[in-house]
DNA sequence: TTTATTGTTGATAACGTTATCAGTAATGAT
DNA sequence: ATCATTACTGATAACGTTATCAACAATAAA
């Protein structure tokens, strides 16, 4: 059997194609009797509208593109799943597109995506969402987009973010509550907004508890395992080594565990370690790592909702939505000896 | 400036729209002179065809859907990236769709995807590609699909696979070459084809080296960290515990490391451990885990190529393409004491 | 009652491409 | 020189939907 079209539905329901279209699009001014008839016909024929035809005529494709360049697979996949769930609910499809945020061809690459696959909007993950040229280009082309965890909040497009500053503050306070006062810090990659927010939260907690900031136990990492290893080695070979280390993500926290193991420093007895992100490794390692979990899935759902609102030119409540993170205590932390 | 259409190109190139279309689709029988003119006009107008209109008229969407249900984020993302690269090269777009292979609604869910977003074909990852009802449904609907690492090879659709049996054989032989003769094995989830192939490779290596299969040191895992932990505990608390353990994936190998640490068994000095998959954790843990890396990216590219061939009804060389894996030796293995 | 407004409906055009088919020019065969 | 074939080109229909607009019926206002 060939696929049913609106014409078929119209014939069966004994109305015009336009009326069928009206019903399917929830347009007003159709008598309930006819609505019933149309719905019955749709069901009887198992009719689904052709998204291509819909898109061609309606100047929209019902496709949303997720643009990512973040190398953290667990994060991206969770984001993707959350975004997709919301897309499906709203009748959209999700297309994905990885890109290299360091490449000089980034703009060209995104530009070509906009040409070859007509999408109604973009979701930008960090650090893409802090690329001013990219934002400017999308603005100029008039393509709606939303941002996830941007650092620069100047732009007027909607975004969601997790409260990294607060979460970093909380986890630092947690370490302090365990009696730690010498708490090393490993920063993330300077290009990422989260890096600065997490560091700010760390500083606020220290300040509030009247612990001076000791810059000799603050190291610049890059969010990679290798960078964490280098920093950990520096931190742990100092004569007065910290009794706890806050690594800006779990990869670097795992690296701290490695260096500690090599140096025969027992965790958590002699050194407490916390990470950030609740990456898979934080559970797959022993001791498992105390960390912060962002509600990634919910953030993704929320941001898609914002995007679709923007596409449909519906008003939306807030440009910004902030999500609270959750502290997950595991086995890498214990009271200070 | 509004987007250029074929009409505009035709006007500028002083030919008919059909001739433009012919040139763009590489159809024969257009004089070189006109081809030149068209190409010049396309370039001058920066023209790109509208994929929606193309799809509507041509009965194809240039969209390929990647269907996955595998919970391994690193694996999926690498697959996705590889597939996408090939899609772009061939002018296709990639849509993704996670689904739950245990859900009774799986068929319905996939069915609804086929209705709401017209795609030209599917990529099925395992274990979805071993679901007979799913294959039957796609067959009945006449939607082309390809499979990645299927277990049941009965179906006539093309597929790619990595040679799990060989790789498992090689890594087992590697352990034997280090002097190990009591090698424990933790199986994967029985629903996955890879589980059986890896076990077969293990058995073949033992047989070839005249080592009897000792079923008391073969445990049934589920590919999860938790299942690995349970199996490891059983294996390591036996009186004659094995001197090496082959876990069917890296998550379970990481679990072995955890149990060993808790039982004060030093790795690799007292126990060698190997995993499979080259998951991120295998590098982020200490000691880092000797493992097997599948050429996931290349497999994805190859499978997309097969799919597009099938979509275009072009002949393809081989139904099956097999890829060799790579043994990556790290720090979790050493000669038997 | 008459007029203005609102609600309801459908015929037809339009979205931007590819497919069909017919027509003309060029080439080859007889 | 004539006819058959092949190469080339374009006018127009078609894909399946939504948008425009006109028409008419029902209701409210005068």
Walk me through this protein's architecture:
2 copies of one chain form a homodimer. Chain A folds into 3 domains: 44 residues, 434 Repressor (Amino-terminal Domain); 131 residues, Response regulator (Rossmann fold); 131 residues, Response regulator (Rossmann fold, 3-Layer(aba) Sandwich), CATH 3.40.50. Helices cover 45% and strands 15% of the residues of chain A. Chain A is built from 13 helices and 12 strands. In chain A, helix 7 links the parallel strand 3 and strand 4. In chain A, helix 1 crosses helix 3 and helix 2 crosses helix 3. At the A-B interface, helix 4, helix 5, strand 2, helix 11 and helix 12 of A face helix 4, helix 5, strand 2, helix 11 and helix 12 of B. The first copy, chain A, binds a DNA duplex (30 and 30 nucleotides) through helix 2 and helix 4.
């Amino acid at each position: 059997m060939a696929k049913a079209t609106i014409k078929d539905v119209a014939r069966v329901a004994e109305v015009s194609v336009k009326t069928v279209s009206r019903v399917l699009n929830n347009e007003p001014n159709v008598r309930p009797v006819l609505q019933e008839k149309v719905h019955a016909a749709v069901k009887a024929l198992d009719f689904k509208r052709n998204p291509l035809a819909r898109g061609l005529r309606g100047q929209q494709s019902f496709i949303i593109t997720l643009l990512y360049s973040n190398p953290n697979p667990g994060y991206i996949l969770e984001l993707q799943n959350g975004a997709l769930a919301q897309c499906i609910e709203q009748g959209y499809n999700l297309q994905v597109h990885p890109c290299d945020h360091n490449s000089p061809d980034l703009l060209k690459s995104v530009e070509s995506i906009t040409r070859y696959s007509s999408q109604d909007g973009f979701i930008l993950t960090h650090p893409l969402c802090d690329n001013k040229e990219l934002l400017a280009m999308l603005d100029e082309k008039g393509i709606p987009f939303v941002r996830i965890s941007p650092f620069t909040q100047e732009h007027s497009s909607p975004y969601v973010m997790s409260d990294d500053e607060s979460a970093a503050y909380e986890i630092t306070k947690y370490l302090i509550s365990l009696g730690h006062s010498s708490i090393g810090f490993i920063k993330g990659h300077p290009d990422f907004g989260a890096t600065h927010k997490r560091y700010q939260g760390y500083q606020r907690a220290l300040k509030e508890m009247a612990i001076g900031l000791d810059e000799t136990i603050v190291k610049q990492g890059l969010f990679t395992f290798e960078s964490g290893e280098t920093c950990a080695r520096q931190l742990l070979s100092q004569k007065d080594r910290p009794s706890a280390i806050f690594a800006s993500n779990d990869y670097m926290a795992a690296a701290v565990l490695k260096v500690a193991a090599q140096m025969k420093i027992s965790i958590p007895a002699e050194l407490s370690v916390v990470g950030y992100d609740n990456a898979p490794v934080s559970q797959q390692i022993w001791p498992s790592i105390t960390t912060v979990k962002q509600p990634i899935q919910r953030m993704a759902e929320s941001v898609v909702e914002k995007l679709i609102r923007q596409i449909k030119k519906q008003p939306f409540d807030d440009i910004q939505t902030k999500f609270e993170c959750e502290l997950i205590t595991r086995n890498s932390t214990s009271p200070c000896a």
